[in-house]
Predict the structure.
Amino acid sequence: MKSPSMKTFAFALALLTLLTRMPALAQTQQAEAWEIIRVNINEKDTEKRAVAIRVLGLLPGDPKALQLATKAVTDEKGDVRAAAAIALGQLHSRSSIPHLHMMLSDDEPSVVIAAATALMTWKDPYAYDVYYEILTGERKAGNGLIASQMKTLKDKKKMAELGIEEGIGFIPFAGIGVTAFKALRVDDVSPVRAAAAKMLATDTDPDSGKALVQATSDKNWIVKTAALEAIAKRGDPALLEGTLPAMKDDNTSVRCTAAAAVIRLSTVAGKKPAPATLAPAAPSTVTPSTTPPSTNTK
């Protein structure tokens, strides 16, 4: 029969082995997650590229995410450029400001609006100019939208479509895209549940974390995407394992959002310090001194 000290030592050894393996495991998970995002960024399908770029906004402080989002501002498709603007706004890097200023002259109004929304992060005066022009139909002195854009902004049908695409950014399940809006027409429950998932991102109760993980296997992809985004923003490495299966989901939005969540959580896990003591301290072999303490007060 093992002594208590031997059991403690065995447990500490097992814990040490696990902690030693964790960095390598986290690197493997991150590599797999980045590959999912990379593959979709290089897709010919515009919506898949847009989704992959948009989820980069869940990785603030990640230089690779910033680089990829910045590169996408010159994509040939407006939907992808708009996604890049959204991501740059969420990444909060001041180096993005010149790129976003450039996007205010884009031919696609949706890109201009996305760039203006991103620039609101810094209360940029150019962003206010864009919204002034949209509201009033008039240009302020200085920069304004080009004539073709003004024509588009006066087209009520086109503006309604833009309202769908850009207005979705103001509801709790923002970041999913216009496809989600179309899905809402046949599903009245998913937006409410998706909104609830988003709200749980800042709830510190562990039960909420478990509920979000459970929601990643929901039947509705909108709810799954919202739950994964909330998990990413929550930043709790304890939810990492439960997030991994979603990287194999059939839906591109779910798969890419899961990949971003895994990258963020594994990065947080890698920054956590290891326990200060991994093994029990060895018994003291110091013989107690028999010399009485000195009473010299000089």
The radius of gyration is 26 Å. The longest helix spans residues 4-41. The chain has two domains: 31-170, 172-270. Residues 166-176, 274-298 have pLDDT under 50 and may be disordered.
